Amino acid sequence: MGMRPKHRAAPTPVLLGKGDRLFLYTDGVAESLAIEVSDSGFDQLIEFVKSRPFLPLEESCADLLEQHPFVRLMAEHPDTVPQPDDFTIVIIERRP
């Protein structure tokens, strides 16, 4: 969610329709789903998010984090599976 100090990016407007959601996440959420070392995990993250039920906004972040395959693996093996990176999810919703 942060940016490198020397990174330059132009602001890009995003228009959300009523009920649309914008899903923001840190790299650890995607990278922990990567099958290959060279894979970013982005495709797997898309499939994972699509597989989750559409819940009220207040429950969506919790569901995505609690049901994330790597988070579940860490919960099952807390002493042997370290968290490799941060896990942060923010969902912004335009209310109808």
Record field, number of beta strands: 2
Major sheet attributes:
2 strands, antiparallel
Give the overall pLDDT as a whole number. Answer: 83
Are there runs of 5+ residues with pLDDT below 50, and where? none
What coarse outline follows from CA principal-axis ratios? globular
Binned strand content: 5-15%
Oligomer: single chain
Amino- and carboxy-terminal Cα gap: 26 Å
Integer tally of domains:
1
Q: Structural class of the secondary elements? A: alpha+beta
Radius of gyration: 15 Å
Helix and strand run: EHHHHE
- Considering DSSP H and I runs of 4 or more, what fraction of the residues is helical? 25-40%
Adjacency order of strands in the biggest sheet: 1-2
Put simply, the count of helices is: 4
Summarize the structure.
The radius of gyration is 15 Å and the shape is globular. By secondary structure, the protein is an alpha+beta fold. The chain has 4 helices and 2 strands, in the order βααααβ.
What's the SSE blueprint?
Layout: E1 21-25, H1 27-31, H2 42-51, H3 57-67, H4 69-76, E2 89-93
Description:
The protein is of the alpha+beta class and about 100 residues long. The chain has one domain (about 20-95). The protein has four helices and two strands; from the N terminus they run βααααβ. It has helices at about 25-30, 40-50, 55-65, 70-75; strands at about 20-25, 90-95. The protein has a two-stranded antiparallel sheet with strand order 1-2. The protein is globular, with a radius of gyration of 15 Å.
